[in-house]
Design goal:
The chain is built from 14 helices and no strands. The protein has 322 residues and is mostly helical. The longest helix has 31 residues.
Length: 322
Amino acid sequence: MNYRTYDKISKLTFNHSSYFLIFIILLILLSNIISITNSSILTISCFFLICTIGICHGSLDNLKGDKLLKIYKIKNKSLFYLVYIFLSIIVIIFWLLLPTLTPIIFLIIASYHFGKEDTKPLLNVKNRKFFSKWFKSEFSNFIFFLKGMLIVAAPLYFHYQETSIIFKILGSNLGFDSIDVALLYSISIFSYLWCLLFLQTPNPNGAAVVLFDLASIILLNYFFTPLIAFTLYFCFLHSIRHSISLITMLDKRNFAKGTRIFIKKALPLTIITAALFLIAVNFLSNSYELNESIIKVIFIGLASLTFPHILLEYLIEKNERK
């Protein structure tokens, strides 16, 4: 990535982060005026947002798959889809067979993914000396993990009982207690503050973005239920931020044109994935209540997509560094 492209992504990320914080504050004010007590409406709304805005940022994985196949000199493009689907099915099977261990592994990997991907647009700074050495070290991966862990720790800290119910619906009993949660929460916030130290000098927008994100996530989880907080974060912060990077890559000069290209390319896999999620909800609703069925599909479904998505990103980055 050249410096001009990075600079554009950095500014877009700053604007997005600030707008997201304003959006959350407005939602909090609106929620105090308009109260929706029907949990099914809220759950269905979360499901709709995740099936559209949420999963669309991974709907260009087929293009990344083509890139990976070229790296490994594999001509059969269908092989990518077969492996991707196979890995997704394996994750679902493991979740059903090991309902406590698999979520733990998923939360660890997801924490690292959230922490890295939410910070990644701020890191490609040209000629960063001490800064680049730190962020290219193995220690940076640990900081990314701790930073992303706030997505898990915050709902447990502010809404322990409701979060525990979600884990039970998913068939898991992680056994957190108040001391563990408070420690996770404190360490996660410390990780955000640690990132501030290394982002404020080489990137004038970086420190502000980290602060805005921290404030947004804390406000989200303080004022909203775990499912709503996660949905708003996943769709409007994580997914859109990742999409901004993809859009800029598709067209470095014209963001509006890049957005149109992104929507066109992402739409097919987004529709297919959303349809599969709907089918799964319909199937599970024969045995569970609607809210429970949706929660199962959201989190187990996202887990099944996250593992191959992260593996794909890792393999591409690994080969690009060679």
